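Blinded run. Sample ID left blank on purpose so nobody reads anything into the name before looking at the predicted structure. Input follows.
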Amino acid sequence: MTATRLPDTLPDNVSAQLAALTSSDLHQLRVQWRKLMRNEAPAHLTRSLLLRILAYKVQELAYGGLDRESVRYLDRIAERLAAGDPNPVPPVPDPRRGRLRPGTLLEREHGGTLHRVSVIEAGFSWQGRTYQSLSEVARAITGTNWNGPRFFGLRDKDSPARKGPRRVPSASDGDRGSVGAEAGL
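Blinded prediction complete.
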């Protein structure tokens, strides 16, 4: 067995747990699996794979798991595999795409009223209230569940998200301009 060098940036307790795992034999890894996973380790898993899964679990418990978007992405791959899709891996979403910067102004007419929503650091501002998501704003405006980006015209129903709202210069912004979007009118 070769020694694995652990990164110096890990906290001592996580580093010690990972070091203990790397020096464990197959039986000890299966015992550790029962402790961490609360069930028996699959018999077909090799020592190397048990070690990697347990190391991930230790780090997940210490630092937290995958974010919601990553879990959804992996679920889509699993669904495509189960359906027999020959190309199960969808394109990786670009985190910069569709992200709205503070100062963006979104406009949408609904029920004969023009609604203006400002993107702020803490989320979205509409009628003096702060919301965590555009979907919350759309729900407050309409009283029904809506996909917020779709409601404000940032995403078409059958196509991926557009790059974002168009830039609209404002006299108060000088050369930089502000960002605005009109949708659903």
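Unblinding after everyone has recorded impressions. The longest helix spans residues 47-63.
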